[in-house]
Amino acid sequence: MEYLPQQLMNGLALGSTYAMIALGLSLIFGVLLIPNFAHGEFYMLGAFITYTLTVAGFNFWLAMALTAIAVIAIGFLLDRVAFKPIEMAPPLSLMISALAASIILQQVATLIWGTEARTIPTPLVGVWSAPFFILTYMQLTIIGVLMVACVAIWGLLHHTALGLSIRATAQNRDAAMLMGIEMLRVRFATFAIGALLGAVAGALLGATFPIYPTMGAGPVLKAFVVLVLGGIGSLKGAVLGGLVLGIAEVLVAGYISSEFQDVGAFTLLVCVLLIRPNGLFGRVQMER
Amino acid sequence: MRPLLDYFVPISLFVIACASSLWINDYFLYVVTIGAIFAVLAVSFDLLLGYTGYLSLAHGALYGVGAYCCGILTAWHGMPFLPAMLFAGLFTGLVGALIALVAFRTKGLYFAVLTLGIGLIGHQLFLIAAPLTGGIGGFIGIPSPNVPAWLPVRQVVYNALLAFALLLVTYLVMRAFVRSRFGAACLAVREDITLAQALGIRVGWPRFAAFALSATFTGMAGALFAALSNFIAPESFTVLGTGFELVALVVVGGLGTLWGPILGAILLTALPEALRVAATLSLLAYGALLLFFIIFYPRGIASILRRLWSRLGAALTGKLGGV
């Protein structure tokens, strides 16, 4: 048990990336009722575009900023092509459309970058040694970025006019439209925040782990697990759920077997849904 | 008249398919056989997605359960293929029934996410349970179905005949189910589950039966796939591979019809093979087609054909009326 604090910190860093993806996913689902299976592709594209720019000689942080802009544009395009035209269709169509979009983005990335795994050169080397654990500067950055993102999103949602209209849409879309809230702006802002979070998470994780075109599938599925754990549409739940899942995974890998890391996460999902079909903190299920 | 026609069309198509399998070359025959297996999968999947309205992403893993079950029975215990296929189907049906017990506690997105989780666990288990499944290296040495002595055909032709026969049986069984009380109840579940319950329709059993039946035939398709490829590996049974392809086949072919998915399966599996496109491109094409159809023709090719058919009918009667 000596290295428990170390495991916890590693779990916290891993969980931070899950939390960032889950935060975006939860926002898009909570506000627009779109189960965005293609969200993992924001993450994948974030990693690959950053990779391409860094290889082309850009500074990592500049590359990440440019990537974020590019992925936001892709997110906007995705919404326009795959979701906006069937806004009024049943939820099943939106789900299928999201699945299709996810496969398309994955395969396009495979065509561009090939299937071999790559790594982004790490911009920060070195570690920070505390009494009971060691964190790399990269892990620290990831945890820090999640904190900043949480504060920024909270500020945006609760202290700006845009945030007010986003929250109003999440509560009741029809009423919000009747109140004269511009739906296009809300859609764009929601997708932009989601894509931004995904892209940043991808770029940061890509500087620590190998990247490949199907890398988005795992995290987005885990983000759905987090969503279900934390309660759909609850941003607090997304962050907490992400951290808990990350820590649980690292502990399972460390104390049981790394083979069971993923199985553990999904078994947790199945068990939670078995006991509470609407999620741990689930309100009554949202339906149109 | 109608019942006669009902059986006449599928059976005569089956006979034509069998007869033509004697004439076409081996490679093309193999492609058609795989197409028929995917058609079985698509029809079983549509019973759930099209008629009951639940998106299951666990079917890729169920297909694998049938395949591994058949592999273990025939390769290790020397069971002949046909009973092994039946047994694999029943076993997969049982697994499906268990999944259904859990999964139908949820609905909508939760159902999709839950079955997705189950599909992923299944795929991981195929990898982890290496003593049973061969792990990532795959399961080798599954014997081909034995050609009976009274049938003077080659192995490839016999494989194709088996696939066609399974497709015919699947189609007829699913049609019987859809036309039964249970099928009607499933449609009610799809349209409005609350209203159905309010009208006193028992929704529990029909949708449970639909899932179990769908799983049974998915398992049999898996068994046939295992026997005629002689080798299976976990990557054939992934959520985003086979699981996703099924969604594409059914939506492109036509949700909520039984012949649409057959059409979709034949088009989508046979065409890329026949044109020899790379796997990446064919998956990309699946995605693009799926997106196109879900946005512009959510009821698939079947709805387009139906519209053409009725327009043709209207044009003909219009002409006759004019005379």
Total number of helices of chain A: 11
With helices defined by DSSP (H or I, 4 residues minimum), what is the helix count of chain B? Answer: 14
Rg of chain B, rounded, reads: 20 Å
Biggest beta sheet attributes of chain B: 2 strands, antiparallel
Distance between the termini of chain A: 49 Å
Q: What class would the helix/strand composition of chain A place it in?
A: mainly alpha
Helical content band of chain A: over 70%
Give the oligomeric state of the chains in this entry, treating copies of one chain as homo and distinct chains as hetero: heterodimer
Low-confidence stretches of chain A: 284-288
* Biggest sheet, spatial arrangement of strands of chain A: 1-2
Low-confidence stretches of chain B: none
Number of strands of chain B: 2
Kindly report the spatial arrangement of strands forming the biggest sheet of chain B: 1-2
What's the shape of chain A?
A: globular
How much beta of chain A, percentage-wise? under 5%
Which protein chains make the most extensive interface, counting residues with beta carbons within 8 Å of the other chain's beta carbons? A-B, 47 and 38 residues
**N/C terminus separation of chain B:** 28 Å
Mean pLDDT over all positions of chain B: 86
Estimate the mean pLDDT confidence of chain A. Answer: 83
Secondary structure: number of strands of chain A: 2
InterPro entries (chain B): ABC_transp_permease (IPR001851), LivM-like (IPR043428)
Main location (chain B): membrane
Membrane topology (chain B): Multi-pass membrane protein
Transmembrane segments (chain B): 7-24, 30-49, 61-79, 85-104, 111-136, 156-174, 208-228, 248-270, 277-297
Structural description of this entry:
The complex is a heterodimer of chains A (288) and B (323). By secondary structure, chain A is an all-alpha fold. Helices cover 72% and strands 2% of the residues of chain A. Chain A contains eleven helices and two strands. Chain A has a two-stranded antiparallel sheet. In chain A, a hairpin with a 4-residue loop joins strand 1 (127-129) and strand 2 (134-136). The longest helix of chain A has 29 residues, at 4-32. Chain A is globular and about 55 Å long. The model of chain B has no long low-confidence stretch (mean pLDDT 86). Chain B has a two-stranded antiparallel ribbon. In chain B, helix 2 (26-49) runs antiparallel to helix 12 (259-275). Helices cover 78% and strands 1% of the residues of chain B. Chain B is mainly alpha-helical and 323 residues long. Chain B is globular and about 60 Å long. The two termini of chain B are 28 Å apart. Chain B contains 14 helices and two strands, in the order H-H-H-H-H-H-E-H-H-H-H-E-H-H-H-H.
